[in-house]
């Protein structure tokens, strides 16, 4: 990455999504730290870079396990299979990469995410310790490698060290590959503190991950209630992804996972409940009333056979959702949104599925299904990550995606059909250019370091001897 400029720069956008509609011929100025300082009608200016096409906010990816990028396609063997058998394959992968391999895999992933239109990512990180056992001299070693990968790629990062304490609801100790994951709340907070200096400058933020109700001790949730350091930080947790998890939670805790979490943790607008697939009507309403964001990862949830999230009832209750790519069987924001919508259409046998909370109907460029889905991803993903972007307004980060108006998917499109066509017109991506914090990281469909990333990734996965 080149160093950021020290003086503001100006761009003249042919078509820019701002204020819910397309604005034509807009001059946008970005300051030295990558924030938008002015938006005004364009005017001829030789020093102003011309940007043709349809420009939209970059999409936030609120849930990622970067190392699992290397697993995509390796857990599809014939025979009886489930989430739990997939997990065993994932554990075998998790036992392999050291810090340099983690960085190489993350760099490749982040390049792919950027090229697809994601501009920031929430990294739910739990590879804390060496593959061979013991501990690194620097407890934040592997976390630093993911931060470094994000900086090399130029993607915005919210890094979340994950608290992971037990092997299940009975409190059994972690064994085998899970020992790499072991981290208590105090250790997680120390990793956050150690990363503080490296996450300065606006391109990196910090959150806190709690692996799940089954892998975090009840007393840890009680401590979070009392910990002032935890207040105000993005707090993410897997919950109710699998029906077996629901049954075991009821057996050992006397309540369903979401029910138990809401009763024992300060869940509010700063929390992101990842998956939340299996909720009762009462739980669905309660999560919406707490104003938490639900993090949906449709391609991973489909790949694992998790089930369908109750989107219609959640949205009708005023619930908020964003998207993530989780295990990275897909790295595309529009593929996640398209599958989310198609799943709801199939379940309801209708094309008219709720996508926006009551009283918040979208109009103009956001009037169609694609625009409504993207609007949720932009707003709620940024809120779940405490990432100051998602709209093109003064004071926000200049995280932007330029769609090629000449691409077949967008030929002859205007108004709301631009975003609808991006989401629903297939797999050939019209993303041409991507800007993060005022810096171009993708131009003409090419990432600035994709060849370097590809070579490093190929060497890393070959060296791991991945399980067949």
CATH topology of one domain: Urease, subunit C, domain 1
Give the overall silhouette.
Answer: globular
Main beta-sheet strand count, sense and barrel state? 9 strands, parallel
What is the helical fraction, as a range of percent?
A: 25-40%
> For the record, what CATH class of one domain applies?
Mainly Beta
Note poorly predicted spans.
none
Strand content: 15-25%
Q: Averaged pLDDT, please?
A: 94
CATH architecture of one domain: Roll
Instruction: Give the name of the CATH superfamily of one domain.
Output: Urease, subunit C, domain 1
Find the count of extended strands (DSSP E, 2+ residues): 17
Helical segment count: 14
**How far do the termini sit from each other?**
36 Å
Helix/strand-derived class? alpha/beta
Rounded radius of gyration (Å):
21 Å
């Amino acid at each position: 990455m080149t160093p950021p400029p020290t003086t503001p720069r100006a761009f003249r956008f042919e078509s820019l999504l701002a204020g819910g509609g397309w604005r034509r011929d807009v001059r946008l100025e970005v300051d030295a730290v990558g924030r938008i300082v002015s938006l005004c009608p364009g005017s001829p200016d030789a020093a102003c870079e011309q940007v043709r096409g349809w420009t939209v906010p970059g999409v936030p990816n609120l849930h990622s396990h970067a190392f699992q990028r290397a697993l995509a396609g390796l857990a599809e063997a014939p025979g009886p299979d489930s989430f739990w058998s997939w997990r065993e394959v994932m554990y075998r992968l998790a036992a392999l990469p050291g810090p340099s391999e983690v960085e190489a895999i993350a760099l490749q992933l982040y390049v792919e995410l950027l090229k697809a239109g994601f501009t920031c990512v929430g990294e739910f990180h739990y590879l804390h310790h060496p593959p061979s056992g013991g501990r690194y001299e620097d407890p934040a070693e592997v976390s630093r490698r993911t931060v470094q990968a994000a900086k090399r790629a130029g993607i915005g990062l919210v890094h979340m060290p994950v608290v992971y304490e037990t092997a299940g609801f009975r409190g059994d100790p972690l064994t085998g590959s899970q020992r790499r994951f072991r981290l208590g709340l105090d250790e997680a907070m120390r990793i956050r503190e150690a990363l503080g200096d490296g996450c300065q400058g606006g391109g990196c933020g910090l959150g806190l991950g709690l692996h799940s109700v089954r892998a975090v001790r009840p007393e840890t949730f009680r401590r979070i209630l009392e910990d002032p350091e935890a207040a105000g930080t993005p707090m993410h947790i897997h919950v109710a992804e699998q029906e077996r998890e629901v049954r075991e939670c009821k057996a050992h805790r006397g309540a369903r996972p979401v029910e138990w979490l809401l009763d024992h943790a300060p869940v509010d607008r700063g929390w992101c409940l990842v998956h939340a697939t299996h909720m009762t009507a009462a739980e669905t309403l309660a999560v919406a009333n707490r104003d938490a964001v639900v993090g949906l990862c449709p391609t991973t949830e489909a790949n694992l056979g998790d089930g369908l999230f109750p989107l219609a009832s959640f949205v009708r209750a005023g619930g908020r959702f964003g998207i993530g790519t989780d295990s990275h069987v897909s790295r595309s924001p529009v593929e996640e949104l398209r599958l989310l919508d198609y799943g709801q259409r199939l379940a309801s046998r209708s094309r008219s599925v709720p996508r926006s909370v009551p009283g918040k109907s979208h109009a103009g460029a956001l009037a169609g299904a694609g625009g409504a889905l993207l609007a949720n991803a932009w707003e709620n993903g940024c809120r779940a990550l405490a990432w100051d972007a998602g709209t093109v307004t003064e004071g926000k980060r200049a995280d932007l995606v330029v769609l090629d108006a000449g691409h077949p998917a967008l030929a002859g499109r205007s108004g709301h059909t631009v975003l609808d066509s991006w989401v629903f017109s297939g797999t050939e991506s019209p993303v041409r250019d991507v800007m993060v914090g005022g810096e171009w990281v993708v131009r003409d469909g090419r990432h600035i370091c994709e060849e370097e990333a590809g070579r490093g990734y190929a060497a890393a996965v070959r060296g791991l001897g991945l399980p067949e």
